[in-house]
Amino acid sequence: MERNSSLSEAMEIFGSDLLGPIEFRKISDLFPISIPDEIPEIPFTSDFLQNKKGTHLLVLGLSRFDGKITNIRNLRNFFGLNAEIQEPCFYNQDWYLQESFIDEELEQAWYLLSKVVLEDTRAGMPHVLELNMNFPKAVICTYAFFVFFLCRNQILWKHDFIWCSDLDHNGDKIYVGKYNDISGINKNGFSIHRHLSLRECYAAIDIIY
After folding, report:
1. FRET label pair with 184: which of 14, 37, 46, 74, CA 20 to 30 Å apart?
2. Dihedral of the CA atoms 91, 94, 96, 101 (nearest 10)?
3. Count of CB atoms within 10 A of residue 70's CB?
4. How far apart are the C-alpha atoms of 209 and 196, rounded to whole Å?
């Protein structure tokens, strides 16, 4: 049985698309993440990582930063909402502050996720797409976006939204991303939205002119 990749092997394969303890120490003045003495094992073989080279990001998820739990709420408070003050930041919206998914703690593990959206999934309905693929949790996407921005000065999913596995209290699907509005109307910011399902409270009225 082939063994899992070591960190040094993964670094050689992925290069700048790997974000681990070395990269996090370099940005410690910008993002004081807590790096444990014992780093989780990479759960992928070298051959598997070779097949994902160039298309995926391998990132070490860490569960604490700045003395706080790594979750969306604390990331939002840390990075703020105003691109004129600092970037990266969150888009200024507050609808999700009472939703439970933003308090979900990031599990300390390695994550392998696509750097760009899959073209054949564009405009696909999430309940159909999810039959054949695994959606990431919103906290994983959020964390990966910010650490990649800080480490590489690059924007993941710049104009695209990413479907997540999370649901709001009504059962509506969460999606995140789209840091830049291609039209230039909205300010920069990492967005968090929900796809509103059609329910009986959505209806129409008639009007006579």
Report:
1. 74
2. 60
3. 23
4. 31
Residues contacting 39, CB < 8 A, separation 6+: 7, 20, 21, 60
Distance from chain centroid for Cα 1: 32
Exposure of 189 in the CB half-sphere (CA atoms within 13 A): 20
Q: How far is CA 16 from CA 12, 36, 57, 118, 185, in A?
A: 9, 22, 9, 21, 32
Can you give the residue ranges of every domain in the chain? 7-195
Backbone angles phi, psi at 196, to 5 degrees: -70, 120
Q: Are 105 and 137 in contact (CB under 8 A)?
A: no
Q: If we measure between CA atoms, which residue out of 193, 159, 150, 154 comes closest to residue 179? A: 159
Token pair for residue 99?
């939703």
Q: Could you read off the pLDDT tens digit of each residue along the chain, which spans 209 residues?
A: 467 899 999 999 999 999 999 999 999 999 999 999 999 999 999 999 999 999 999 999 999 999 999 999 999 999 999 999 999 999 999 999 999 999 999 999 999 999 999 999 999 998 999 999 999 999 999 999 999 999 999 999 999 999 999 999 999 999 999 998 777 778 899 999 999 776 777 777 888 98
